[in-house]
Please model this.
Amino acid sequence: MADFFDQLNDILFLDIETASLTENFEELPERIQDEWLKKERLIQSPEHLHDPGALYFDRAGIHAEFGQVVCVGVGYFQWKKKDKKLAFRSKCYAHEDERELLLEFKALLEKKKWILCAHNGKEFDFPYLCRRMLINGVSLPEPLQISGKKPWEVRHLDTMELWKFGDYKHYTRLELLASVFGIPSSKDDLDGSQVNTTFHLEKDVEKIKKYCLRDVEVTARVYMAMHPQSDDLEIEIIHLEDSKKDHKD
Model:
């Protein structure tokens, strides 16, 4: 059991929140507008056709070429052997300049040989971060470099993939796993579909950051539930507000 908890210290749990690149479709550069219209024709239902650009505000944020990273929430466990307690330390990176946000996050990833873990991270969070970094002229930190690596050399974990146990039939929401494991919801006053409105119209980044941190904690608790060790294990939650106080191991 001690080995399991020691290894937890190397796992960085993360979640990203994204929004459309601009508030209005018309603000996009003309070439990007043309590309979005091509994308839009592919994602809209033939039975429900929309005016050109009408889907941009609600749908662009999930596509890295037309969206941006609003914040990155991270968290990691520290095993206190003497007290037999776990501390979960988390914080959120956010910056009005996306490039600066990504550079701050990159600096954290370069501090140690992290194992990255996110829910649906292999399909969304990890590739989205890679694409936005390259678009912003940021070189990829080692944990996000997968080109040329063998599968067992890629240090990525995905709680959705772990839950599939080889079943490729359907997507499993983080909220569903939280529900079946009895983990408190992260969707109390915000969910992913409302992030774009909260960011562009309400200008409430703090609300998004709090939601992102709750998702990180839920992901970490789901991971723990998939590796049951002790039913009475106490977990101390510590939120680090200052993004300059990174992990010092």
